[in-house]
Amino acid sequence: MDRIRRLVTEVIRLSKRMSLWGAGCIAVVIAISTGCSNAADQGSSGVEHTDQPSATPAAATAIAAPATAVPAPSATAAPAVKSKSLIPEVREYTGSGSGYELDGVNVQADYSADKTLPLGVFLPETMIRFEQEGRTAWGTADKHNYITLIKLSSEKDAMGGKFEPGTDPGLLKFKEYDGSRVEGDRRVEAFIFTANKDSYRAEIHIQDEQRDKLLPLFTSMLSGMEYMEKQPPIKPGVFFKVPDVGSSPGNKQALQETLDCIAAWAAKDKEKFAATMYSPLLNDNLQPYLLDNKNVYRFNKLTVVGIPVEGTKRAAFFVEFTQMTSEGYITDSNNEISLLLNKQGEWKIASID
Q1: Beta strands in 244-346 (DSSP E)
Q2: What is the predicted pLDDT for the residue at 103?
Q3: Residue 87: is it exposed, middle or buried by C-beta count within 10 angstroms (0-12/13-18/19+)?
Q4: Exposure of 22 by Cβ count < 10 A (0-12 exposed, 13-18 middle, 19+ buried)?
Q5: Is residue 262 over pLDDT 50?
Q6: Cis omega before residue 308 (within 30°)?
Q7: CA-based end-to-end distance of the chain
Q8: Is 104 helix (H, G, I), strand (E, B) or coil?
Q9: Burial class of residue 259 (count of CB atoms within 10 Å of its CB; 0-12, 13-18, 19+)
C-alpha cells in the first residue's frame, strides 16, 4: 500500500506540472490500484473471481462499453406481405395482339384460348399450345415447362394438389399466390384468381434449371390473361340476297366478278380468288391477309355503291360479313370491294378494304 500512496503522490505532483493529463491520470492509477487489490484478494482466498459492477473503473468503461444488442435473425423468414396483384383484372378479349421481349428481342404473341374455359393467354410464337392431363397447356416445345388453368367449381378442386406455402420472394408478393409443390422434375407454382365472378387456379409447371429464364415470362402471360366466352361456330358461306344492278352487260359482269370473289373468299379457294384479281401483285397481297388465316367468314349483305361510282372510273360494292377466328372470337365487319376495267374491258377486283 505504501507503494500505491507513493504512486498517487507522484501523479498529483506531475499533474500540477502538466495540467493536460488532469484527472485521467488519477483514474488510471485508481484502476491499477484496484486491480492490484483484487489480485491480492484472489491470491489469498482461492475463490473464483467475479467482477463487481461497483468496482468497474471509468477508463475501462470507456474502452469496453457494452454494444447495443442485435436480435438474431429467425430461422425462417416471415413471408412477404401480399401487396401486389399479379392478375388485377381479367379483361374481355377485344381481338388485339400482344408481344414480349425475350433475350432482348421483341416476340409476337397471339391470343390463344383455353379449349374448354372462357380464358386465354397471349402465347409467344416461340411456344406452343398442347393438351396436358386433360387440360389446355401453353409452354415450351418440349412440353416440360408450361401453364395450365382449372376452374374451382367445387371444394375438391380448390383443395386439389396439396400446395405448401411458397418460398420464392418474387412470388410471395403477389396476392394471388397460393403456394408450391414438387412434381417430378418440376416445381408447380399456384395462383388463385377471379374472372367474371368465377374462381380459377393457374399453375406454372417449371424446371429448376429453366426457372430464371421462364418464370418472368410465365407470370407476364398470366398477368395479361383475357376472358372470352365460348360461342358456337358460325357456318361459312354466302347468305345474302343478290342486289339488282340492272340489265347492262357491264353491270352484270361487275356483279358476277364480285360474287365470284366473295364465294372464293368464303371457301378459301385460292385459284378462283386469283382469277378475279386485277393483277397478280394484288392477289399476292390479299391472299395472305384474307385466305391464309384460319378465320371463318359468313357474308351477310352486299350493297351496290356504283357501277361506276359517280365521278370515277371504278365500280364498287359494300359487303358485310361475320368472321370467327380460330380461337373462337366473333366480330362483325365490312369491306368495300372496288373494281377497274382491264385491257380486255372486263371488270376486275382492284382493291378490298
Answers
A1: 296-306, 315-324, 330-341
A2: 81
A3: buried
A4: exposed
A5: yes
A6: yes
A7: 115
A8: coil
A9: middle
